[in-house]
Amino acid sequence: MKTGAKILVESLQREGVDILFGYPGGVVLPIYDELYDSSLKHILVRHEQAAAHAADGYARASGKVGACLATSGPGACNLVTGIATAYMDSVPMVAITGQVPTSLLGNDAFQESDITGITLPITKHNYLLKDSRDVARVVKEAFFIAGTGRPGPVLIDIPKDVSTGVVDKFEYPDKVSLRGYNPTYKGHRRQIDKAIELIVKAERPVIYAGGGVICSNASAELVEFATLLSIPVTTTLMGIGCIPGDHPLNLGMLGMHGTEYANFAITESDLLIAIGARFDDRVIGKAEKFAPHAKIIHIDIDPAEIGKNKRVDVPIVGDTRLVLKDMLALIKKTGAKEAWLKRVKHWKQHHPLKYKKDDSLHPQYIIRQLSELVKGEAVIVSEVGQNQMWTAQWFSFKHPRTWITSGGLGTMGYGFPAAIGAHFARPDLPVFDIAGDGSIQMNIQEMGTAAANNIPVKIAILNNMYLGMVRQWQELFFDRRYSYTELPPVEFVKIANAYGIKGVKVESVDEVVPALKAALDCDGPFVMDFRIEREENVFPMVPAGAAINEMIGGHTPS
Amino acid sequence: MKPHTLSVLVENKAGVLSRVTGLFSRRGFNIESLAVGTCEEPGMSRITIVVIGDDEKIEQVMKQLNKLIDIIKVTDLTENERVERELAMIKVSAEPGTSRAEIMQIAQIFRAQIIDVGAKSVILQVVGDTDKIDALEKLLRQYGVKELVRTGRIGMLRGTKTVGVGR
Prior knowledge:
The complex is a heterodimer of chains A (558) and B (167). By secondary structure, chain A is an alpha/beta fold. Chain A is 37% helix and 16% strand. In chain A, strand 2, helix 2 and strand 3 form a beta-alpha-beta unit. Chain A is globular. Chain B folds into two domains: 79 residues, ACT domain (Alpha-Beta Plaits, 2-Layer Sandwich); 72 residues, Alpha-Beta Plaits (2-Layer Sandwich), CATH 3.30.70.1150. In chain B, 28% of the residues lie in helices and 41% in strands. In chain B, strands 5, 6, 7, 8 and 9 form a five-stranded antiparallel beta sheet that branches. The two termini of chain B are 34 Å apart. The relative contact order of chain B is 0.21.
């Protein structure tokens, strides 16, 4: 005899969940009562949104399915942004919410919200449980759906009487049976052959690698493939880390804030090999002018992404790792396309990313110093906006799953709680949240969580007293009319101190490295308030809807 | 932009219909016709949706439908030889006398059945494709259509081909 709540907790453990991020409330009391005696670790956040982001950060850093828990109504609704963030970036996550008892469903009961209805378009799947006997099966299915195929969040809504209801026999199912769910993992052989034929013939090939390479753990295969064939690789924001930052074939990020050389290479290429990427509008700009001379091979596990924004010549539906493995087995080393590689190298040398090197405190300098200090052996999480783009451009990543950012949804306030989650996935590495003064204030209450659990997340606030990216757009496209983007100065170190967290305010260039070292040396959370050049911009920049080789702060290819 | 008739085989579970229709509404599609019912497979239902849109957008919706866990199979009937039918019930004002006789005559031509006769009205039931029902409605309008209800279109491939799970 076991209650639904007990079965839930045991099922989570059977799924290998070792940490749950959550916040208690009325209808989840039976579940929290089970957690009281359980060996399952629970981290109490200060706002449910942070629970979802922490589970997401944990999932991205570990590759496992993250889990979070909230009560009904406001608790569940507060998860929504976190669930949508995970959905847009294909992050495996299971969100569990309490619900009013089944007898009250639909009655506008206290703290009732139709969370399965609300999350319908932002979950891979969701469940409203009605019977305690279904708990084990549904947990099994939820983790299976979240973690397989194209990963994504799954929500389980559990009415209070389902938690308290008693089941005679508890048997955890060892497999799932879902007749409507059969992801394709293995690429079609004929398509792979066609792709190889194009690759062998191509003279100016480029690999465009996205988050799919990271989530299918295909980074090693990707690097092997690119190296074998001497094909330059550009990564999307989500794909960063799949090839080391200092790899000679790495062109860095493409798209709106991509490197000039990546965007030039795409524009001039005659073959684009898209791997686990989805031709997002921030990447491709004006669709017709994206890789206009190229044949396109698109490898992706989700058939709905193929041909969505751009016509594709050779679609290959499958797991990027398995497809790359198959291709590696079939393809032979080709002669390097010397002329093309030389051209790309020339662009790399003559159009590097740059910023003004003077006495003022430039954010790019801070990111560079951090990069050189940790040498890729850290988990770097960002918020959203300029902080995110500067980090993507200037930090040199070495390993997959060490760069964690909200790409698709662009959720400000994501970084700090996601960094908390990432710490539990990678306690062996220092974890940094690169923030702006706007973003950090969206989930600053999590200093409470970090302090209470001594979670050693290092928050580097690139403080320009603006909502910097919006200000940049206002500067460039709205005639410098800074409508509601200026933020009054905040003494972040004092806020940190109030939570019992150490910190330092940095106002000059020579204080940067000591501050970063102090953060690394501190065994708890640490806040750095960098007072940066206020109107620094992220360049180059492709204006929305323009061709990606038409960059502000860019050049014509030499 | 042309009408597409999609046949969607789904698990017969709560919420499936909103999952399906949600994919249309979030893309701004207006569903022209919708019919849902149980089908030859136990535990499954078949949803027939008629929607107007350009081919690429419809293809994208079909791919998205295929991703839903509770959806088993999606077929665009429009691409194939098929039969499509809907049923309508039309309540027409029919005072005893000439108009009633005329209505019954029209019904006969359309092979519609009179399924209820009241003092001042009759109910016609008609089965056919959309055009036929539209035509009948138009003819009956002069007598006063008090109420009209249609089932939504259902369709099936001609010949031995099916849109079932296939086994």
